[in-house]
Amino acid sequence: MQRIINNIKKSGITFVEVCVAFLILGLVALPVFQFLTGSVKETERYYTETIAISRAKFIMDSLMFQMPWQAIGAGNPCSFEDRKNNDGVKAFLRKSVPKMFGDGCETVDSDVFKADGLYQCRKGFMYRARVKVEDLDEDSSSAPIQFTIELPGKSKQYFKIKDLVPKDSYGKYNLMKKIVVQVKWSNSKNVDPKDDPHAKSIFLVGFKSDLEG
Amino acid sequence: MVAMNKKSGIAVVVVLFFAFSIATIFFFMAHSNTNLAYQNKQTIYQMQAYYLAHSGMQHAKLQLRLLPKETYEFFSAGGSTNVLVDVDSSQHIPIAMGAFKNQQASYDLFKEGKAPDNTFPYGGKYHVESIELTGSHNRMKMIQDGYRVVVKAEVDSGPTKTFSTDLTEEMIVSRFTGGIN
User: Fold this and answer.
1) Helix/strand/coil (H/E/C) assignment for every residue in A85-127
2) Looking at the complex, does the CB of residue A54 fall below 8 Å from at least one CB of chain B?
3) ipTM of the assembly?
4) Alpha-carbon distance A79 to A76, whole Å?
5) B79: which of A160, A190, B87, B147 is 20 to 30 A away, CA to CA?
């Protein structure tokens, strides 16, 4: 009987054993929590990147396929303005441009917008979007874009832009615009990417041809 | 005493099983995040190539609009090569993006002087791979020609960061007005 009691006493947990168990648990739990915290941060980083991608796509889609050619003015940031006094285009600009760029794209003229704005997502991350447009017109380069065709048995024919179209509403012989979209964001909440030296960026480039004239 | 030793052996198995389970969960979590990063990067390159392909298609449509009669004459004269061979970004200086260069990594529209004209944030190119005349409609007042155009685009954002895509469109071009449907 005494031997059994001694055995039970020996199989009990001492204070030292509990301390060692907690120490082991702590050593295991520390990297686990570090991993979990890191993982949450990583997931947030991918979330912000995904939002930036979809915003850049929204802007580029709108500019390449919806925005009227004549409404896009060159510059960094570029401007949006209906130059043919069309009420439908004006209404489109008033509605679509603030949706694309967020706050700050308005100008003193309610019908003119600039392609630069700040947007904050529901989680509190801030994104800046800006678009630069270059007119690739007849006079912008020493070797401007030209069109060629070579009929069988004949020599190659060259057509300059000014041989094919009149000047546009900006006074240029132009058939193509270079569009560069940049979305810049901070991975810290409520921080303007302009003030974050670690801000991330994505870019999209497109060439919009004048298919309306 | 023997029974007690057997029970203490089970503890090691339980601990090992627990450790293996935790390791498996963490492995899949890490793998899932890595996948997400890879997918985001691929989405960006894919989108960049997609807009270059559409730029090429718009360029092709522009030439068809401007020279619809000449394009038809090419095919009616028995032309079998690519009549839109000139619709190639690498052949026009203002749209020649070229290959990726290290200085493109600092391209920034928000910083003064970091996005000069005639430069690009990444490399790439597009060209018309093929064009074929699919048919002509001469019986109506509007004489129209059908074309199938294939454009290829390639993006170069650095070593192992390339992506290519192609785009095929069929269109009907009015031979004398250049209108496109």
Assistant:
1) CCHHHHHHHHHHHHHHHCECCECCCCCEEECEEEEECCCCCEE
2) no
3) 0.86
4) 8
5) A160
To the nearest whole Å, the CA of B93 is away from the closest chain A CA by 6
CB of A116 within 8 A of CB of A130?
yes
- Domain chopping of chain B, boundaries: 2-176
Decide: B56 and B167 in contact? Cβ < 8 Å. Answer: yes
* Listed residue (A169, A179, A170, A174) closest to A204, CA to CA: A179
Burial group, residue B38, by CB count within 10 angstroms (0-12, 13-18, 19+):
exposed
**Token output for A208:** 């919009």
Distance from CA of B140 to the nearest CA of A (A): 24
Q: Is the Cβ of A143 closer than 8 Å to some Cβ of chain B?
A: yes
pTM of structure: 0.86
Q: Please list the pLDDT of chain A residue by residue as tens digits (213 residues).
A: 566 666 555 566 677 777 877 787 788 778 878 888 888 888 889 999 999 999 999 999 999 999 999 999 999 999 999 988 889 999 999 999 999 999 999 999 999 999 999 999 999 999 999 999 999 998 887 888 999 998 888 888 899 998 888 888 888 999 999 999 999 999 999 999 999 999 999 999 999 999 987
Burial A29-43 (b: 16+ CB within 10 A, else e): eeeeeeeeeeeeebe
| Half-sphere exposure in the Cβ direction for B147 (13 Å, CA) | 30
CB contact under 8 A, B83 and A149: yes
